[in-house]
Design brief:
With 661 residues, this protein is of the alpha+beta class. Strands 1-9-3-5-2-4 form a 6-stranded mixed sheet, sandwiched between helices. The chain is globular, with a radius of gyration of 28 Å. The model has no long low-confidence stretch (mean pLDDT 86).
C-alpha cells in the first residue's frame, strides 16, 4: 500500500475543499479553532515559519464523511477525492480567511506587522487592513498601497508595498503532503488515532468517536441528532462527547480509557446496536426524572454529567415496566449522594468500571450505594458547607432547595429558573457585597467572601439594582418572606459587615437543614436514617492566590485547611501552566511545590496535582478556568508573604479543582 509524498499550494487546497475534492471522513473532529489561532496561522505563513505537513487518504471506497466548517456546501468532486486525516483545522481556517468568513476576519497591522481578529478598535485604527482585502482575486495592490499611505503618512509607500506583497504571497505557500492510497478504513482509523495522539492530543472521547466512526459508519449523524434532541429540551450538555462516553460505557461496561478504541474495534454490530438503544432509552427515562421530580430543568445546573452514565445504563436496560415511585426516588437519592461526594472527581474509568456493572444487577441502586459507601441516609451539616463556593456540588443543592422553598427573583417576583434569559437570566448574587467585605477591618479572606452561604440566586437585573448596597439597606425593601424563601436568616443584627462570620454560620445552618431534608425526601425506605455527615471533604478548603512578578516567574500561593491542620506553599504559576499544556498531549510531569518536586499525572482526561493535603483533580478546561480566574485577580509580588516550607505528612484527599477558591 503506497504512501505518496508531494506538495500543494495553499490556493489549490482552498479551491479543492470548496469543490469537494478534499473531504473530511467521519472520524474527524469538528472544527474547533478560535480566531486567535487562525491569526497565528496566517502570521506563521507570512513570516515563513514551519506550518506542518498534511496527511490525506485516497480510496475507491465511499466512506462516511462530515461537512467541512466552510461557508456553503462543498461541491461535488469530478475526481476521486482526498480524505483529510491531519490538518483539518489549518485547511479549514485558510479557506475561511480566503472566503471572508465572519469568524475568520483576520486583520494585518501594516506598521507593526501583527495579526489579530478584527475588533471595533482595529476597525477605527488606520494601520489595520483586512487580510481578505489583500488576498481576494480582484484586489488592486497599488490602490491599497495608496490608500494605506494616505491614512498612514508616516510609513513609506515602498515599505507598505513590500509588506502587502509578502502578505499576498501567502496563497503560494506550499504544504508538504503525504497521501495514503488503498489503505482499508479500519487501518486508516488506527493511523488517525496514532497521529492525533501525539503532541496535539485528542481526548479519549475523541479517540473513541474516531474508532466508532470506522467501526460503525453513520454513528456521528446518530450522535448529532440525539444531541440536538436534548439541546432543544434544555440539556445541551448531552453533546456528542457525552454521548460517545455513554455509548462506550453501555458497550464496554466501564468508562473511557486509552484502550477503549481497541476494545470498541472488537465489539460486534449487535453489541453496538444494543448499546445505542440502551443510551437512547435510558436518557428518555432519566432526563424527565431529573427535570420533573428533582427540579433540575437544565443540564447547566448539574455539577457533573459523568454521574448520569450508570443511571442511563440502569434505566436503559431495565424491564419495560412502570417505574414505581420508590425506585425513582432511590435513583435520585443516589444521584444526589454521588454528586455531593464528587464520585467521579478522580479515577473515573475505575469507578465507572464498578458502577456500570452494579447498575446491571438485580438490585442496582443498593449496589450503587454500596459502591459509594452509603449505608444510611445522608445528613449535611453546616461544617460541610464551610468554605464551599460556586464550584462545589453543594451550590447545585443550594439552587434546588431555594427553588423548592419558592424562592423568587428580587426584581420581578418570578420564581427562579435556569431558563430565564436576557436581564432576567439567573445569576448568583453576593448577599453581603464583595467591595464592602474586601475593605473591612476584619480582613475577610477571599474564601469567606465567596462562600456559598453568601450567594443567592437572582436575576442580573436585580443584581445590578442592588449593586454594592449593604443588606442593612436593601433587606427592608424585600421583606422577611422573600429572604426566608432563599434560606437567608432574617435576624437584623446579621445585616452588618462586622457580623459577617455570624451571618455565614446562621445561613449555613439553614441551607444544611434544607439540603438534608431534600435528601431525606428521596431516601429509599430500606436505608436507615442517619444524623452524621459522611462527606470526606467536610471542613476542607483550598485557596489559590496569584502574584505578579515582573522580575521573574509569577507565583501561585496555595493555602489549605482540613480537620487535621493547615498547610501553605508556593509554586511557579508558569510551571503549573506548562503542566496543564503538557497534559493536553497526555504527558505526565513534575512540579516544584513548596520547594519539593512533585509528580503530576494525567488519567482519564483528568489532571491530578498533589498540593499539600489534597490531590487536586479536574479536566483541563476546569484547570484553565481556575488559573485564568486567579490571573485576573492577581496581586503584586510585593504583597506576598512567603510561607514556611513544610511537607504534608498526612493522608491526601481527592479535591476537585473547581472547588478551589
Amino acid at each position: 500500500m503506497p504512501v505518496d509524498k508531494t506538495e500543494r499550494e495553499v490556493r489549490t487546497l482552498v479551491s479543492q475543499i470548496e469543490q469537494g475534492e478534499i473531504r473530511l471522513p467521519e472520524i474527524q473532529r469538528g472544527y474547533v479553532w478560535k480566531p486567535t489561532q487562525v491569526a497565528k496561522l496566517v502570521e506563521s505563513l507570512y513570516r515563513g515559519y514551519p506550518s506542518g505537513s498534511l496527511l490525506f487518504w485516497q480510496t475507491d471506497e465511499a466512506p462516511q464523511t462530515r461537512e467541512a466548517a466552510i461557508s456553503g456546501p462543498a461541491g461535488k468532486a469530478a475526481v476521486v477525492p482526498l480524505y483529510l486525516l491531519d490538518g483539518q483545522q489549518r485547511v479549514t481556517s485558510l479557506h475561511r480567511v480566503f472566503t471572508d468568513h465572519p469568524q475568520a476576519a483576520i486583520v494585518f497591522n501594516v506598521e507593526t506587522e501583527k495579526f489579530q481578529n478584527q475588533s471595533a478598535a482595529t476597525a477605527k485604527d488606520p494601520r489595520w487592513i483586512k487580510v481578505y482585502d489583500v488576498l481576494k482575486p480582484e484586489a488592486d495592490q497599488w490602490q491599497l498601497v495608496g490608500e494605506l499611505h494616505e491614512r498612514n503618512p508616516g510609513i513609506a509607500p515602498n515599505e507598505i508595498s513590500k509588506r502587502l506583497q509578502k502578505l499576498a504571497a501567502i496563497p503560494g505557500h506550499k504544504f508538504h503532503m503525504e497521501v495514503l492510497r488503498d489503505f482499508p478504513y479500519d487501518e486508516v482509523t488506527q493511523i488517525f488515532v496514532r497521529v492525533n495522539s501525539g503532541g496535539r492530543s485528542l481526548k479519549t472521547s475523541d479517540l473513541a468517536l474516531a474508532t466508532l466512526s470506522a467501526r460503525w459508519p453513520g454513528v456521528l449523524q446518530k450522535l448529532e441528532a440525539e444531541a440536538k434532541h436534548w439541546a432543544d429540551r434544555g440539556y445541551g450538555d448531552i453533546d456528542v462527547t457525552f454521548l460517545t462516553r455513554a455509548l462506550t460505557g453501555a458497550v464496554l461496561g466501564r468508562g473511557l480509557s486509552a484502550w477503549s478504541h481497541a476494545r470498541l474495534v472488537a465489539a460486534t454490530d449487535d453489541e453496538l446496536d444494543r448499546g445505542w438503544a440502551t443510551v437512547r432509552r435510558g436518557l428518555r427515562h432519566l432526563v424527565p426524572l431529573l427535570q420533573n421530580n428533582l427540579g433540575a430543568s437544565h443540564s447547566k445546573l448539574l455539577p457533573s454529567m459523568v454521574v448520569l452514565l450508570p443511571l442511563i445504563v440502569l434505566l436503559g436496560e431495565r424491564e419495560d415496566e412502570q417505574l414505581d415511585g420508590g425506585t425513582a426516588d432511590a435513583i435520585l437519592f443516589w444521584f444526589l449522594a454521588a454528586t455531593i461526594r464528587n464520585r467521579y472527581s478522580g479515577s473515573t474509568d475505575t469507578r465507572l468500571g464498578q458502577d456500570i456493572p452494579a447498575a446491571r444487577t438485580e438490585d442496582p441502586v443498593r449496589r450503587l450505594l454500596d459502591n459509594l459507601g452509603v449505608t444510611g441516609g445522608v445528613s449535611i451539616g453546616p461544617d460541610d458547607l464551610a468554605g464551599r463556593t460556586v464550584g462545589s456540588p453543594y451550590f447545585f443543592l443550594s439552587f434546588l432547595v431555594a427553588k423548592e422553598a419558592g424562592a423568587k427573583d428580587w426584581w420581578g417576583s418570578i420564581g427562579i429558573s435556569a431558563a430565564a434569559e436576557g436581564s432576567q437570566a439567573l445569576e448568583y448574587h453576593h448577599i453581603h457585597p464583595q467591595a464592602t467585605l474586601k475593605n473591612h477591618p476584619e480582613k475577610y479572606s477571599k474564601g469567606e467572601i465567596n462562600d456559598l452561604a453568601n450567594l443567592a440566586f437572582i436575576s442580573g437585573k436585580a443584581n445590578r439594582k442592588i449593586s454594592h448596597r449593604s443588606p442593612r439597606d436593601y433587606f427592608p425593601t424585600l421583606g422577611d418572606q422573600e429572604l426566608t424563601a432563599h434560606l437567608i436568616p432574617v435576624d437584623e443584627d446579621l445585616r452588618d459587615a462586622d457580623r459577617y462570620r455570624s451571618f455565614l454560620s446562621a445561613r449555613r445552618r439553614l441551607l444544611a437543614d434544607a439540603m438534608t431534608n431534600l435528601l431525606e425526601r428521596f431516601r429509599p425506605a430500606w436505608l436507615s436514617p442517619t444524623s452524621e455527615s459522611t462527606d470526606p471533604l467536610s471542613g476542607a478548603v483550598l485557596e489559590f492566590e496569584w502574584y505578579d512578578n515582573t522580575a521573574g516567574d509569577d507565583v501561585l500561593l496555595a493555602r489549605a485547611r482540613t480537620n487535621s491542620g493547615t498547610w501553605s506553599g508556593t509554586m511557579s504559576a508558569a510551571d503549573l501552566e506548562d503542566v496543564v499544556a503538557a497534559a493536553e498531549a497526555g504527558v505526565d510531569g513534575d512540579l516544584v511545590i513548596a520547594g519539593e518536586s512533585t509528580p503530576v499525572r494525567v488519567q482519564d482526561d483528568l489532571l491530578e496535582v498533589p498540593i499539600g493535603p489534597f490531590v487536586v483533580t479536574g479536566t483541563l478546561p476546569e484547570w484553565r478556568k481556575v488559573l485564568d480566574r486567579e490571573r485576573g485577580d492577581s496581586h503584586p509580588i510585593a504583597a506576598l508573604t512567603q510561607p514556611e516550607v513544610e511537607r504534608w505528612e498526612g493522608e491526601q484527599l481527592i479535591f476537585p479543582v473547581i472547588s478551589v477558591d
